[in-house]
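Milestone M4 deliverable, item 7.
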Amino acid sequence: MAAPKQLEAMNLYAGVMEEIKIRLSSLDIAFAGGFQIPGALVREYCFLQFRMVCELIALACLTAHGDIEATTKLRKEWEADKIIKQLEALHPSFYPWPVKQTKVGREHRLHGIAEEYLTKAELLSLYGKCGGVLHRGNLKNSYPPKPLYRPISPTS
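Output delivered:
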């Protein structure tokens, strides 16, 4: 039987994973043209969701390894790359891998799956790219402003 702190951590982890699913589902809507906004804003929305997913994965990892004493100082951290790098230093095999849950009778079993998934290196790379897209930068590199609507030429 799990201790109350373990149950709390498991519920938090499961809640974070559900939020990730919702955010990824919203990307399907965005990609399908479900948002009636300029393409540049859809792109920013998608990168925002990717960044949030990176942060949520990092927070889920922190939740799963919260029993490690050295993670206490990380609980106030929000930047995915910092959490990931510090967790790696504490426990090199901390990063999650994809599994499929099956029910056999009253038992639930987890089976590793070979499908592609977001690796730790890819998460760090994506997190950095998202920051580059979502921040305007300084005044010098923000002028002239980029148009939200791309002009349509007769040849395009």
